[in-house]
Design brief:
single chain, Alpha-Beta Plaits, six-stranded mixed beta sheet, four-stranded antiparallel beta sheet, binds adenosine-5'-triphosphate
Amino acid sequence: MITLSKIGKVFQTKDGKVTAVDDIDLTIDKGEIFGVIGYSGAGKSTLIRMLNMLEAPTSGNVEVAGKKMNGMSSQKLREARQEIGMIFQHFNLLWSRTVSENIAFPLEIKGVNKADQKKRVEELVRLVGLEGRGGSYPAQLSGGQKQRVGIARALANNPQVLLCDEATSALDPKTTDSILDLLVDINKKLGLTIVLITHEMHVIRKICHRVAVMENGKIVEQGDVLDIFRRPQQNMTKEFVKQVTEPEETEEALKHLFDNQDIGRVLQLTFVGGDAQRPLITDIVRNFDVNVSILQGKISQTQHGSYGSLFVSITGEDTPVNDAVSFIRAQQVEVEVIHGG
Ligand SMILES: Nc1ncnc2c1ncn2[C@@H]1O[C@H](COP(=O)(O)OP(=O)(O)OP(=O)(O)O)[C@@H](O)[C@H]1O
Protein backbone atom coordinates (compact mmCIF):
# COMPACT_ATOMS: atom_id res chain seq x y z
CA MET A 1 0.00 0.00 0.00
CA ILE A 2 2.85 2.37 0.88
CA THR A 3 6.41 2.08 -0.37
CA LEU A 4 9.19 4.45 0.54
CA SER A 5 12.38 4.02 -1.47
CA LYS A 6 15.56 5.71 -0.34
CA ILE A 7 13.54 8.61 0.96
CA GLY A 8 15.44 11.56 2.40
CA LYS A 9 14.79 15.10 3.61
CA VAL A 10 17.44 17.73 4.19
CA PHE A 11 16.42 21.14 5.54
CA GLN A 12 18.56 24.17 4.79
CA THR A 13 18.80 26.35 7.89
CA LYS A 14 20.80 29.43 8.80
CA ASP A 15 23.12 27.13 10.74
CA GLY A 16 23.61 24.76 7.84
CA LYS A 17 21.98 21.59 6.61
CA VAL A 18 19.81 19.39 8.84
CA THR A 19 19.17 15.85 7.66
CA ALA A 20 15.75 15.04 9.15
CA VAL A 21 15.17 11.79 7.24
CA ASP A 22 18.14 9.83 5.98
CA ASP A 23 17.74 7.34 3.13
CA ILE A 24 14.80 5.30 4.46
CA ASP A 25 13.30 2.24 2.74
CA LEU A 26 9.97 1.11 4.15
CA THR A 27 6.95 -0.91 3.03
CA ILE A 28 3.57 -0.75 4.76
CA ASP A 29 0.94 -3.31 3.83
CA LYS A 30 -2.73 -2.71 3.07
CA GLY A 31 -4.91 -2.91 6.18
CA GLU A 32 -2.12 -2.84 8.74
CA ILE A 33 -1.61 -0.46 11.62
CA PHE A 34 2.01 0.59 11.37
CA GLY A 35 3.69 2.63 14.10
CA VAL A 36 6.84 4.72 13.96
CA ILE A 37 8.35 5.45 17.36
CA GLY A 38 11.24 7.73 18.26
CA TYR A 39 12.26 10.52 20.59
CA SER A 40 11.80 14.18 19.75
CA GLY A 41 13.89 15.19 16.75
CA ALA A 42 14.23 11.65 15.35
CA GLY A 43 12.49 12.70 12.13
CA LYS A 44 9.06 11.07 12.62
CA SER A 45 6.94 14.11 11.71
CA THR A 46 9.01 14.81 8.64
CA LEU A 47 8.68 11.17 7.57
CA ILE A 48 4.89 10.98 7.98
CA ARG A 49 4.42 14.37 6.29
CA MET A 50 6.26 13.07 3.23
CA LEU A 51 3.60 10.36 2.79
CA ASN A 52 1.06 12.98 1.66
CA MET A 53 3.64 15.49 0.39
CA LEU A 54 2.98 18.05 3.13
CA GLU A 55 6.76 17.88 3.09
CA ALA A 56 8.48 17.28 -0.26
CA PRO A 57 11.35 14.77 -0.10
CA THR A 58 14.78 15.90 -1.23
CA SER A 59 15.59 12.40 -2.46
CA GLY A 60 13.88 9.07 -3.08
CA ASN A 61 10.34 8.05 -3.99
CA VAL A 62 7.04 7.77 -2.14
CA GLU A 63 4.29 5.53 -3.49
CA VAL A 64 0.85 5.42 -1.86
CA ALA A 65 -2.07 3.30 -3.14
CA GLY A 66 -0.23 2.61 -6.40
CA LYS A 67 0.58 6.27 -7.12
CA LYS A 68 3.99 7.89 -7.07
CA MET A 69 3.41 10.94 -4.87
CA ASN A 70 6.51 12.98 -5.54
CA GLY A 71 6.74 14.92 -8.77
CA MET A 72 2.93 15.04 -9.24
CA SER A 73 1.17 18.12 -10.64
CA SER A 74 -0.78 20.00 -7.96
CA GLN A 75 -4.08 18.89 -9.53
CA LYS A 76 -3.03 15.22 -9.41
CA LEU A 77 -1.69 15.64 -5.87
CA ARG A 78 -5.05 17.04 -4.73
CA GLU A 79 -6.74 13.93 -6.14
CA ALA A 80 -4.18 11.55 -4.63
CA ARG A 81 -4.62 13.20 -1.22
CA GLN A 82 -8.29 12.18 -1.24
CA GLU A 83 -6.96 8.68 -0.52
CA ILE A 84 -4.96 9.86 2.50
CA GLY A 85 -6.64 11.28 5.61
CA MET A 86 -4.62 12.81 8.41
CA ILE A 87 -5.16 13.63 12.09
CA PHE A 88 -2.99 15.83 14.29
CA GLN A 89 -1.89 16.22 17.90
CA HIS A 90 -3.74 19.54 18.28
CA PHE A 91 -6.71 18.46 16.14
CA ASN A 92 -6.49 21.40 13.66
CA LEU A 93 -10.27 22.00 13.71
CA LEU A 94 -11.99 25.13 12.43
CA TRP A 95 -13.15 26.86 15.61
CA SER A 96 -15.91 28.91 14.02
CA ARG A 97 -17.58 25.83 12.54
CA THR A 98 -19.74 23.26 14.29
CA VAL A 99 -18.77 19.59 14.56
CA SER A 100 -20.94 18.75 11.52
CA GLU A 101 -19.54 21.66 9.52
CA ASN A 102 -15.97 20.63 10.34
CA ILE A 103 -16.66 17.09 9.18
CA ALA A 104 -18.39 18.37 6.04
CA PHE A 105 -15.44 20.61 5.11
CA PRO A 106 -13.55 18.11 2.87
CA LEU A 107 -16.85 17.15 1.21
CA GLU A 108 -17.55 20.80 0.37
CA ILE A 109 -14.09 21.13 -1.15
CA LYS A 110 -14.73 18.04 -3.26
CA GLY A 111 -18.03 19.57 -4.47
CA VAL A 112 -20.35 16.97 -2.93
CA ASN A 113 -23.99 18.19 -2.99
CA LYS A 114 -25.65 19.33 0.27
CA ALA A 115 -27.96 16.30 0.62
CA ASP A 116 -25.10 13.79 0.23
CA GLN A 117 -22.94 15.86 2.56
CA LYS A 118 -25.61 15.67 5.25
CA LYS A 119 -26.01 11.92 4.85
CA ARG A 120 -22.26 11.28 4.98
CA VAL A 121 -21.78 13.57 7.99
CA GLU A 122 -24.50 11.67 9.88
CA GLU A 123 -22.76 8.35 9.11
CA LEU A 124 -19.41 9.70 10.27
CA VAL A 125 -20.82 11.22 13.47
CA ARG A 126 -22.21 7.77 14.32
CA LEU A 127 -18.97 6.00 13.36
CA VAL A 128 -16.89 8.09 15.76
CA GLY A 129 -19.46 8.06 18.59
CA LEU A 130 -20.46 11.75 18.54
CA GLU A 131 -24.22 11.35 18.20
CA GLY A 132 -26.05 14.42 19.46
CA ARG A 133 -22.97 16.68 19.28
CA GLY A 134 -23.16 17.69 15.60
CA GLY A 135 -24.27 21.23 16.47
CA SER A 136 -21.58 21.86 19.09
CA TYR A 137 -18.52 24.01 18.50
CA PRO A 138 -15.01 22.61 19.08
CA ALA A 139 -14.54 24.84 22.15
CA GLN A 140 -17.49 23.02 23.77
CA LEU A 141 -15.86 19.59 23.37
CA SER A 142 -13.35 17.59 25.42
CA GLY A 143 -9.96 16.71 23.89
CA GLY A 144 -11.10 13.19 23.08
CA GLN A 145 -14.25 14.48 21.39
CA LYS A 146 -12.20 16.97 19.37
CA GLN A 147 -9.99 14.15 18.12
CA ARG A 148 -13.12 12.18 17.19
CA VAL A 149 -14.14 15.14 15.00
CA GLY A 150 -10.63 15.10 13.51
CA ILE A 151 -10.99 11.41 12.72
CA ALA A 152 -14.45 11.83 11.19
CA ARG A 153 -13.20 14.71 9.02
CA ALA A 154 -10.17 12.68 7.92
CA LEU A 155 -12.43 9.80 6.87
CA ALA A 156 -15.01 11.94 5.04
CA ASN A 157 -13.77 11.10 1.55
CA ASN A 158 -13.31 7.38 2.26
CA PRO A 159 -9.50 7.38 2.18
CA GLN A 160 -7.49 4.17 2.01
CA VAL A 161 -4.84 5.47 4.40
CA LEU A 162 -5.06 7.38 7.68
CA LEU A 163 -1.95 9.18 8.95
CA CYS A 164 -1.86 9.95 12.68
CA ASP A 165 0.67 12.56 13.79
CA GLU A 166 1.00 12.13 17.60
CA ALA A 167 -2.81 11.92 17.64
CA THR A 168 -3.11 11.02 21.32
CA SER A 169 -0.16 12.96 22.78
CA ALA A 170 -2.36 15.79 24.05
CA LEU A 171 -4.83 13.43 25.74
CA ASP A 172 -4.97 11.85 29.20
CA PRO A 173 -4.35 8.07 29.44
CA LYS A 174 -8.03 7.06 29.58
CA THR A 175 -9.01 9.25 26.64
CA THR A 176 -5.92 8.04 24.76
CA ASP A 177 -7.16 4.47 25.14
CA SER A 178 -10.65 5.33 23.92
CA ILE A 179 -9.21 7.00 20.79
CA LEU A 180 -6.87 4.05 20.21
CA ASP A 181 -9.86 1.67 20.51
CA LEU A 182 -11.69 3.77 17.94
CA LEU A 183 -8.72 3.56 15.54
CA VAL A 184 -8.65 -0.25 15.87
CA ASP A 185 -12.41 -0.36 15.29
CA ILE A 186 -12.09 1.75 12.13
CA ASN A 187 -9.14 -0.31 10.91
CA LYS A 188 -11.21 -3.48 11.24
CA LYS A 189 -14.50 -2.09 9.93
CA LEU A 190 -13.10 -0.22 6.94
CA GLY A 191 -9.90 -2.17 6.23
CA LEU A 192 -8.11 1.17 6.51
CA THR A 193 -4.31 1.26 6.52
CA ILE A 194 -3.16 3.35 9.50
CA VAL A 195 0.29 4.89 9.90
CA LEU A 196 0.99 6.59 13.20
CA ILE A 197 3.93 8.31 14.81
CA THR A 198 4.39 8.47 18.55
CA HIS A 199 6.94 8.65 21.35
CA GLU A 200 4.83 6.36 23.57
CA MET A 201 5.38 2.60 23.46
CA HIS A 202 1.96 2.15 25.05
CA VAL A 203 0.38 3.32 21.77
CA ILE A 204 2.49 0.86 19.78
CA ARG A 205 1.71 -2.00 22.15
CA LYS A 206 -1.99 -1.34 22.21
CA ILE A 207 -2.82 -1.03 18.54
CA CYS A 208 0.06 -1.56 16.11
CA HIS A 209 0.77 -4.70 14.10
CA ARG A 210 4.26 -3.61 13.11
CA VAL A 211 6.62 -0.93 14.36
CA ALA A 212 9.70 0.92 13.15
CA VAL A 213 12.07 2.60 15.61
CA MET A 214 13.59 5.88 14.39
CA GLU A 215 16.78 7.56 15.53
CA ASN A 216 18.68 10.39 13.84
CA GLY A 217 16.60 10.20 10.67
CA LYS A 218 17.09 6.46 10.21
CA ILE A 219 15.03 3.37 10.99
CA VAL A 220 17.25 1.45 13.39
CA GLU A 221 14.93 -1.52 13.92
CA GLN A 222 11.56 -2.74 12.66
CA GLY A 223 9.34 -5.78 12.93
CA ASP A 224 6.15 -7.32 14.29
CA VAL A 225 5.23 -5.68 17.59
CA LEU A 226 5.30 -8.95 19.52
CA ASP A 227 8.75 -9.88 18.14
CA ILE A 228 10.09 -6.45 19.01
CA PHE A 229 8.79 -6.82 22.57
CA ARG A 230 10.23 -10.30 22.84
CA ARG A 231 13.66 -9.57 21.42
CA PRO A 232 14.49 -5.89 21.07
CA GLN A 233 17.93 -5.61 19.49
CA GLN A 234 18.95 -1.97 19.64
CA ASN A 235 19.43 -0.04 22.89
CA MET A 236 16.93 2.54 21.71
CA THR A 237 14.32 -0.18 21.19
CA LYS A 238 15.08 -1.71 24.58
CA GLU A 239 14.43 1.68 26.20
CA PHE A 240 11.07 1.98 24.50
CA VAL A 241 10.07 -1.58 25.42
CA LYS A 242 10.95 -0.82 29.04
CA GLN A 243 8.45 2.07 28.98
CA VAL A 244 5.63 -0.47 29.07
CA THR A 245 7.15 -3.55 30.65
CA GLU A 246 9.18 -2.07 33.48
CA PRO A 247 7.82 0.91 35.27
CA GLU A 248 10.53 2.98 36.96
CA GLU A 249 9.38 1.67 40.35
CA THR A 250 10.40 -1.85 39.30
CA GLU A 251 13.97 -0.81 38.71
CA GLU A 252 14.04 1.02 42.06
CA ALA A 253 12.46 -1.86 43.95
CA LEU A 254 14.81 -4.41 42.40
CA LYS A 255 17.89 -2.31 43.19
CA HIS A 256 16.92 -2.38 46.87
CA LEU A 257 16.54 -6.15 46.74
CA PHE A 258 20.03 -6.57 45.25
CA ASP A 259 21.50 -5.21 48.50
CA ASN A 260 20.16 -8.30 50.23
CA GLN A 261 22.90 -11.00 50.23
CA ASP A 262 20.34 -13.81 50.08
CA ILE A 263 18.51 -12.62 47.03
CA GLY A 264 20.17 -15.32 44.86
CA ARG A 265 19.94 -15.08 41.13
CA VAL A 266 17.43 -12.58 39.75
CA LEU A 267 16.01 -13.32 36.33
CA GLN A 268 13.76 -11.43 33.99
CA LEU A 269 11.59 -13.89 32.07
CA THR A 270 9.76 -12.78 28.96
CA PHE A 271 6.78 -14.78 27.76
CA VAL A 272 4.92 -14.35 24.52
CA GLY A 273 1.48 -15.56 23.39
CA GLY A 274 0.53 -19.02 24.75
CA ASP A 275 3.75 -19.20 26.84
CA ALA A 276 2.23 -16.63 29.16
CA GLN A 277 -0.32 -19.17 30.38
CA ARG A 278 2.12 -22.04 31.11
CA PRO A 279 2.81 -23.23 34.69
CA LEU A 280 6.56 -22.65 34.35
CA ILE A 281 7.23 -21.76 37.98
CA THR A 282 5.45 -24.91 39.20
CA ASP A 283 7.58 -26.99 36.81
CA ILE A 284 10.81 -25.44 38.14
CA VAL A 285 9.97 -25.96 41.79
CA ARG A 286 8.86 -29.55 41.18
CA ASN A 287 11.92 -30.54 39.14
CA PHE A 288 14.81 -28.72 40.80
CA ASP A 289 15.95 -28.30 44.37
CA VAL A 290 15.56 -24.52 44.33
CA ASN A 291 13.30 -21.87 45.81
CA VAL A 292 11.62 -19.37 43.52
CA SER A 293 10.22 -16.02 44.65
CA ILE A 294 8.20 -13.87 42.30
CA LEU A 295 9.37 -10.26 42.63
CA GLN A 296 7.21 -8.57 40.03
CA GLY A 297 5.13 -9.56 37.04
CA LYS A 298 2.95 -8.06 34.34
CA ILE A 299 1.04 -9.34 31.33
CA SER A 300 0.10 -6.93 28.54
CA GLN A 301 -2.02 -7.41 25.45
CA THR A 302 -0.86 -6.52 21.94
CA GLN A 303 -2.81 -6.81 18.68
CA HIS A 304 -1.08 -10.17 18.10
CA GLY A 305 -1.42 -11.79 21.52
CA SER A 306 -0.29 -11.47 25.10
CA TYR A 307 3.15 -10.53 26.32
CA GLY A 308 4.40 -11.02 29.85
CA SER A 309 7.43 -10.06 31.86
CA LEU A 310 8.21 -11.71 35.19
CA PHE A 311 11.01 -10.97 37.65
CA VAL A 312 11.93 -13.93 39.87
CA SER A 313 14.71 -14.74 42.27
CA ILE A 314 16.03 -18.28 42.41
CA THR A 315 17.99 -19.47 45.43
CA GLY A 316 19.72 -22.75 46.16
CA GLU A 317 22.99 -24.57 45.45
CA ASP A 318 24.81 -23.50 42.28
CA THR A 319 24.17 -26.71 40.33
CA PRO A 320 20.39 -26.91 40.68
CA VAL A 321 20.11 -23.15 40.12
CA ASN A 322 22.14 -23.47 36.88
CA ASP A 323 20.02 -26.45 35.82
CA ALA A 324 16.82 -24.52 36.52
CA VAL A 325 18.03 -21.59 34.39
CA SER A 326 18.95 -23.94 31.53
CA PHE A 327 15.52 -25.57 31.84
CA ILE A 328 13.78 -22.18 31.54
CA ARG A 329 15.90 -21.28 28.50
CA ALA A 330 14.91 -24.58 26.84
CA GLN A 331 11.20 -23.64 27.20
CA GLN A 332 11.53 -20.87 24.57
CA VAL A 333 11.17 -18.28 27.29
CA GLU A 334 13.57 -15.36 27.00
CA VAL A 335 15.76 -15.19 30.10
CA GLU A 336 17.96 -12.34 31.20
CA VAL A 337 20.00 -12.79 34.38
CA ILE A 338 19.92 -9.32 35.88
CA HIS A 339 21.63 -10.08 39.19
CA GLY A 340 23.84 -12.79 40.62
CA GLY A 341 24.81 -14.29 37.26
N1 LIG B 1 11.03 23.06 8.67
C1 LIG B 1 12.21 22.70 9.21
N2 LIG B 1 13.31 23.44 9.02
C2 LIG B 1 14.50 23.08 9.55
N3 LIG B 1 14.70 21.96 10.29
C3 LIG B 1 13.63 21.19 10.51
C4 LIG B 1 12.34 21.51 10.00
N4 LIG B 1 11.46 20.54 10.38
C5 LIG B 1 12.18 19.67 11.12
N5 LIG B 1 13.47 20.03 11.19
C6 LIG B 1 14.56 19.32 11.90
O1 LIG B 1 14.54 17.97 11.45
C7 LIG B 1 14.80 17.08 12.54
C8 LIG B 1 13.64 16.11 12.67
O2 LIG B 1 12.48 16.81 13.07
P1 LIG B 1 11.05 16.13 13.19
O3 LIG B 1 10.07 17.17 13.64
O4 LIG B 1 10.73 15.39 11.93
O5 LIG B 1 11.31 15.07 14.36
P2 LIG B 1 10.25 14.33 15.28
O6 LIG B 1 10.80 12.99 15.54
O7 LIG B 1 8.90 14.41 14.66
O8 LIG B 1 10.29 15.17 16.61
P3 LIG B 1 9.08 15.96 17.33
O9 LIG B 1 8.20 14.89 17.90
O10 LIG B 1 9.76 16.78 18.37
O11 LIG B 1 8.42 16.78 16.26
C9 LIG B 1 15.01 17.96 13.77
O12 LIG B 1 16.40 18.15 13.94
C10 LIG B 1 14.34 19.27 13.38
O13 LIG B 1 14.95 20.35 14.02
